Amino acid sequence: MRVNEMTKIALLGCGRIGQMHADNLMAHPKVELVGVFDIYTPASQEVADQHGVRVYASPDDVFADHEIDAVLIATATPTHADFIEAAVAADKAVLCEKPIDLNLDRVNICADRIVGCTRPIQLGFNRRFDPGHKAARQAMIDGEIGDLHQVIITSRDPDMPPRAYYESAGGMFRDMTIHDFDIARYMLGEEPTEVFATASRLIDKPMMDELDDYDTAMFVLTTDSGKQCHINNSRTAAYGYDQRIELLGETGMVISDNRTPHGVKRYSNKIAEAALPYEDFFIERYKQSFDAEIDSFVRAVASNEPVEASFEDGRQALRLAEAAYLSLKEKRAVGMAEIA
Amino acid sequence: MRVNEMTKIALLGCGRIGQMHADNLMAHPKVELVGVFDIYTPASQEVADQHGVRVYASPDDVFADHEIDAVLIATATPTHADFIEAAVAADKAVLCEKPIDLNLDRVNICADRIVGCTRPIQLGFNRRFDPGHKAARQAMIDGEIGDLHQVIITSRDPDMPPRAYYESAGGMFRDMTIHDFDIARYMLGEEPTEVFATASRLIDKPMMDELDDYDTAMFVLTTDSGKQCHINNSRTAAYGYDQRIELLGETGMVISDNRTPHGVKRYSNKIAEAALPYEDFFIERYKQSFDAEIDSFVRAVASNEPVEASFEDGRQALRLAEAAYLSLKEKRAVGMAEIA
Amino acid sequence: MRVNEMTKIALLGCGRIGQMHADNLMAHPKVELVGVFDIYTPASQEVADQHGVRVYASPDDVFADHEIDAVLIATATPTHADFIEAAVAADKAVLCEKPIDLNLDRVNICADRIVGCTRPIQLGFNRRFDPGHKAARQAMIDGEIGDLHQVIITSRDPDMPPRAYYESAGGMFRDMTIHDFDIARYMLGEEPTEVFATASRLIDKPMMDELDDYDTAMFVLTTDSGKQCHINNSRTAAYGYDQRIELLGETGMVISDNRTPHGVKRYSNKIAEAALPYEDFFIERYKQSFDAEIDSFVRAVASNEPVEASFEDGRQALRLAEAAYLSLKEKRAVGMAEIA
Amino acid sequence: MRVNEMTKIALLGCGRIGQMHADNLMAHPKVELVGVFDIYTPASQEVADQHGVRVYASPDDVFADHEIDAVLIATATPTHADFIEAAVAADKAVLCEKPIDLNLDRVNICADRIVGCTRPIQLGFNRRFDPGHKAARQAMIDGEIGDLHQVIITSRDPDMPPRAYYESAGGMFRDMTIHDFDIARYMLGEEPTEVFATASRLIDKPMMDELDDYDTAMFVLTTDSGKQCHINNSRTAAYGYDQRIELLGETGMVISDNRTPHGVKRYSNKIAEAALPYEDFFIERYKQSFDAEIDSFVRAVASNEPVEASFEDGRQALRLAEAAYLSLKEKRAVGMAEIA
After folding, report:
1. Same domain for D61 and D14?
2. Among A141, D18, D111, D131, which residue's Cβ finds the most Cβ atoms within 10 Å?
3. What CATH number is attached to the domain comprising B82?
């Protein structure tokens, strides 16, 4: 494929995140969105109508379409591994939302089945593409802070998701923290070898009890060379979506800090320099990173260069989640060698 | 016209700002960009090819096109008044880049000629649409700072434009400060009645001497009720495009401050909390305001509601520039009643 | 005098500012506060008792005291010039609160009378000694911002002083702006040659009308080389004492910004990163500068080195105030050559 | 004792921290520093000379002095418990630098021996008195952030102490983290019941190996109700002494952030809004808290009110350090019930 050509993509899944991806695909100058599929036809019809593209009758129709180069998988989590395998079998490139699967065994099976695949498979770890996070990492790589010593990741959602969300999300560590586990690996530059986790039910204890899930958590990850990473998570932050990454090194520090919606600051007899609360949630906060994710994928498809967030990255993040659950249960640091 | 219909627009002028508008018009869901014109055909052809729209052979062809509802005028300044008049004669709505003309008499003639026009005529004072500036003004209107006492406008370009730019720009006050004069009026909420100006040649004195222009300036505007507004301008700011508006009131203050490209902050043995320099220039810094400007215009065309930046706003800003030049010459506060 | 010796100082004036100076003199390791005088004996007695020093019966007793090296004059303004002259006659060093006198003629006479004085005479322009302001100026001197182009001074009191204060203060420009005129000269590095001023009555118009004074003002000062300085003043700032200095140069900018009382920031669903209002007023905000002022004076007395804020600095600041009043009256830029 | 009377205090220990305390005691208006002792007589003589107070020949002389109300213990750690016991036996109030002892058994014995003591015993946890930290805690107590969920404590020294310091400091957790353990308890408002710790040798591995100590550490503390606290420590921070406390609650967040030495911000083509590195170390950074600590102690002595940092607080912080060492060794969360 020549770089100047358009990359032809089909979208599987037309829910909230799928709709966002449809918009982003349409806005990309090198992408042609060929068609969409959703198990709920009215949803796919609506997205298709909006963008003037075809509706596929089934996933099989998608994978059988010789016109398309790639699929973007934004369907329910239990379908991800199957669709990745089908796409690989049909020689399509894949951009798949995280997680690959909630079950690490299934992920490992999928990994075996796609061995030798020559087309790009990219995981939806959009935060890697955030300009601020990326610039922080680049500053570190450029030697601005010397050797890395500590990583502090603050990651808090603005508000509790609805109950139905929890029921299929697979638990806080696999659903929410998985992004932070990935960022931890991305920033540490070497694999975490031990994981400690603790979690609480502080925001809605009755619901969390009933669902056997958590709303507030802290983690410590360490590497063989002694680098340390702390993650803190909360399902609510009254002041908006809180996304901060701090890298402490031998000769300096770099922080990718929150940003306010615009530059207004208020002053009164009560406050000074008061900004607005942060962007409400990921679609607004990570708009640039979702765009850059598509762009990176398109370049990988066009050039067959390595993707910036791989299937293996998706598998490793899930392994960290598994280690964290074991740590939570046994109240100890869990070695990654204990995890399949 | 029903709100659901598309607004059909032709673009006159395919230079840098025209190309930006073409992109923004294309991205707007309620706009159909019908065609483009530029006196330099390769320029119009390139924009037309990029967006798949027609090339008009002449401005007359544009105004004669019964298909279009509106024109966006982004041609050279000397054509603005003629094109506004032609558009009004052809019953088209107009979005015209500032200034209307460099000559206030010509502007006044144009004003006479378009009296009674029933279609929206909007001036390209994009900064009114900036979310931060708008939120600052809204906070004031909402009573957050009580009565307004002082406005401080800091407005500095990142770097000197090329010499050719100056030759047709009409002088610093009419070209650069005109935006700040407009923002002063927008924020003061009443007409400035006296203007004081001073200007220097500090950045490139030889070129400024030769062109009889200035690169560094300060202004004080006052209103009959005693409100005060300071503007400072510079043609260079090493740290990027500097755009700040401060509103001091009886019970508080609100500032629309600069924003950095992303939230990275650096720390070393020399610095702490160091952000990146600001966005390089207006296309990046005011991206949201240019989008909102188009959106506001489209709503005005569709509903015939008043525009948010009118022909009269364009005329008043130019009157302030004229008063400022007289003040500079005579080293005194010039009453606006002295200006035609 | 050897550097190791104590400098023996008498204090004239035990009002609010005098009491503060008494505390600061006592705290200085190289100063011995010998005694105090106030026209209102209970005031001097109280300060004397607090610090265990003598009460002088009259100013003459102070100047006749052979034990003391220096006097700190913090009495009412109309006494300043007389006391400076008496101190010089008695061969005492002087640290005198600003202004020298409200009447420029009187200041000029005083200047003539003290010609040839060999002991340090320092004016109480404490802001020159503020660590932030000083560091900003030093950065400029060190070439960090290249040639200076613009100075922006924001200087707003937290609240209107009581009516009685205005009656003896000599008018806003001589009382309040005089500090900013001094800072303008300190930062510009060359004399302002033209002054433009405007002033309003926005906070308490009835009282200002009655007193023929102003509560809100703006100024523009220029130098022969084209450097520009803007000052804005307000007698109220709901968010605390607002003291900012901005230096724009060819290759950068340095700002001496406000500081909050401590580093607490608040976050809620309404605000983010909200600091406390600024320090209430000058005794708190400029604590470090008042201390450094004393220290600088003591070093000047001990070494006979030049003071950092001289009698001539006091005279020039008053000349700028006079020029500003003329500008306000005649609505024009006033050349400094017009002022005696 | 009446509140108006002076509190008479003797100082034991004239090293760096003792000298600082001597200065602060002298500056306090209600304190009379009666005399000083140091095992190294030239040190005590120097401090005595500087402040004009007596030198005690021995600790016994101090405790036998009927004139004094209280002792401030700033001697080497191994003497603390003995001196506390002696002071209590002599019916003196005590302000003792942390830690009480490096050995928890010794602390527990001391606790038994001073049971029934009626005079104030205050521990030198100065950070509790920092205006920013205190205001953050007060905001939480006032309900500004609702129920507390997470505490994040960032605590990093600017630079590695000299080797000799480590040899007697008792290990990073007992020497450095002990302040953070205390702040954790102070902010959590309930006792941590489980502790997880990890530590590395990243800054000077050879020296840390030799001394069996650490230079980089992370901790997670949890309470029975599920509140979580993270602490991160480093022995170097190139950008200065880094002291931040973040309190996340149900309805908001409050942060006690770092402060720069003054308000200067720099702007160039490389950086914007760049502050200076933070204050170098604790004597500068916590100046206000050391002053307030003395003030609080004096009020406790004068009124016999409870101290704000008690012997028991000192013991509990040491128990947390012990738990952290056990956690580090066994790589598990250690229950506080396991610690004596």
Report:
1. yes
2. D18
3. 3.40.50.720
Residue B208 counted as domain residue: yes
The model carries a pTM of: 0.96
| Cβ of residue A78 closer than 8 Å to a chain D Cβ | no
pLDDT grade, residue B4 (50/70/90)?
low
Whether chain C has a CB inside 8 Å of the CB on D16: the answer is no
The answer to whether residue B256 is domain-embedded is yes
Query: Of C61, C95, C119, which one is at a domain's C-terminal end?
Result: C119
Residue D3 has pLDDT above 60, yes or no: no
pLDDT tens digits for range D167-187: 989 999 999 999 999 999 999
Of D93, D119, D145, at which residue does a domain stop? Answer: D119
Examine the domain organization and report whether B281 and B148 are in the same domain. Answer: yes
A177 vs A45: CA distance, rounded Å: 33
Same-domain check for residues C99 and C139: no
User: ∠ CA(C236), CA(B132), CA(B308), 5° rounding?
Assistant: 105
B38-77: pLDDT as tens digits: 999 999 999 999 999 999 999 999 999 999 999 999 999 9
Residues A88 and A142 in one domain: no
Minimum distance, in Å, between the CA of residue B239 and any CA atom of chain D: 5
Q: What's the rounded mean pLDDT across residues A212-235?
A: 98
- For C158, which residue in chain A has the nearest alpha carbon? A269
C265 to chain D, any CB pair closer than 8 A? The answer is yes
Per residue in A150-209, pLDDT (tens digit) is 999 999 999 999 999 999 899 999 999 999 999 999 999 999 999 999 999 999 999 999
Residue B295 lies in a domain: no
* pLDDT at residue A304, rounded to an integer: 79
Q: Could you give the CA distance from residue D137 to residue D186 in angstroms, rounded to a whole number?
A: 8
What is the least distance, in Å, from the CA of D226 to any CA of chain A?
Answer: 5
Residues C89, C165, single domain; the answer is no
Domain total of chain B: 2
Whole domain around residue B74: which residue ranges?
7-119
pLDDT of B3 higher than 50: no
A269 touches C at CB < 8 Å: yes
Q: Note the pLDDT tens digit of each residue in B162-199.
A: 999 999 899 999 999 999 999 999 999 999 999 999 99
ipTM: 0.95
The answer to whether C263 contacts chain D (CB < 8 Å) is yes
From C239, C269, C275, residue closest to A277, measured CB to CB? C269
Cβ contact C218–B220 (<8 Å): yes
Residue-wise pLDDT tens digits, D18-49: 999 999 999 898 999 999 999 999 999 999 99
Residues in chain B with CB shorter than 8 Å from the CB of A139 are 264, 266
Chain A nearest CA to C309, separation (Å) = 32
Q: pLDDT below 50 — which residues of chain C? A: 1-3
Partner residue opposite B218 with nearest CB, options C200, C230, C238? C230
- Pair (C174, C140) in one structural domain: yes
Q: Do C265 and D259 touch (CB under 8 A)?
A: no
* B90 and B175 share one domain: no
A141 touching chain B per CB within 8 A? no
Residue C210 sits in a domain whose CATH number is: 3.30.360.10
Q: Cβ contact (<8 Å) for A150 and D218?
A: yes
The pLDDT assigned to B1 comes to 35
Q: Do B223 and B81 share a structural domain?
A: no
pLDDT at B304: 79
Chain D, 157-216: which have a CB under 8 Å from a chain B CB? Answer: none
